[in-house]
UniProtKB/TrEMBL annotation:
GO MF term list: transferase activity
Protein's UniProt keywords contain Membrane: yes
Record-stated family: Belongs to the plant acyltransferase family.
Keyword entries, A-Z: Membrane, Transferase, Transmembrane, Transmembrane helix
Name this polypeptide is given: Uncharacterized protein
Statement: the UniProt record of this protein carries the keyword Transmembrane helix: yes
Species whose genome carries this gene: Solanum bulbocastanum
Length: 160
């Protein structure tokens, strides 16, 4: 695990990066190849959008107490992604380029690559007010839907 220290004049925090892992669908999926539509296969759409999401641990306090204090948001997200990939199995495949640079999805069921970061010694209220990085953090990122995170991660790594 690497540690990354980010600092600004108002804020200093440490983040521990955990090893990237492959999350496969929870159940077997069909093995097939799907051609992308002409709309989805435009050259101008072949780029990656980096996304970062933050979740407050205290927003899950009911779950935490019902699970005896053993609630781990990362495990819940991983399980949700694995379950979602059963129904959205092309996201667990790999993009391939065919004749004429036509893109297709090879539905292999391999899964998606996810990389997790855990914060150390930082209050999100301070982060929300003082974060000074190269991207903007809106209040809505702190309360986004849990399932959305899975699909954004899938999209980021699918078009990698």
């Amino acid at each position: 695990m690497d540690s990354i220290k980010q600092s600004s004049s108002q804020l200093a925090f440490t983040v521990r990066r955990q090893k990237a892992e492959l999350i496969a669908p929870a159940k077997p999926t069909p093995r097939e190849t799907k051609l992308l539509s002409d709309i989805d296969d435009q050259e101008g759409l072949r780029f990656q959008i980096p996304v970062i999401n933050f979740y407050r641990k205290d927003s899950y306090s009911n779950l935490d107490s019902s699970m005896g204090g053993n609630y781990d948001p990362v495990k819940v997200i991983k399980n949700a992604i694995a379950e979602a990939l059963v129904f959205y199995y092309p996201f667990a495949g790999r993009l391939r380029e065919g004749n004429g640079r036509k893109l297709m999805v090879d539905c292999t069921g391999e899964g998606v690559i996810c990389s997790w970061r855990r914060r150390l010694m930082l209050h999100l209220n301070n982060l929300e007010m003082n974060l000074n990085l190269h991207f903007r953090v809106w209040k809505s990122f702190f309360v986004t839907f849990l399932a959305l995170l899975g699909f954004l991660i899938v999209l980021c790594f699918l078009f990698r």
